[in-house]
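Readers of this paper often ask what the protein records in our data store actually look like. Such a record has a labelled line for the sequence and another for the backbone structure tokens. Nothing more is needed to write down the fold, since each code stands for a local backbone conformation. The remainder of this section carries one protein's record, kept here as part of the documentation.
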Amino acid sequence: MYEPIRTKSVHRMADPSRERLDFPHRSREEELDIQLAGHLAALLAVTDELGDSAAGELIARQVARLRGTPPARHAGLSGAPAAVLHRKAHALAGRALVVAASRADTTAAILAAERMDAHTAALAAPAPAPATPTPDPAVAPAVTAVTPAPTPSLVGAP
């Protein structure tokens, strides 16, 4: 009535002594290293887009320490406003801080907290006013004060 199963089961055996050892396992620390490196690499991309090269170098050193190789630097620009980029960077630094704290990586946790503070300060700072061009006196005509003429009243006018 039913066809017999011809493939191996994808489920683990209940007996731990018969556990399959032919596929790689990662420890919790290795998984956290991978997560932290990913969050810091994303933060590095946003930091590079914001043009903060000093902070970018600090972040790149941490990514290189976690991955064993230097990170690929962000080449493209999204064209997003600075406030949006600061919010995104703040969120990424927060995620990196959580993972760094869970793996007890003090160096990365301090860096992530500093980046969160920097992006919070950047968001709190007033936006610079757009520059207004100063008229060239040689080109622009001189502006003289003109007193407006009194407006006639229509009510009760002769």
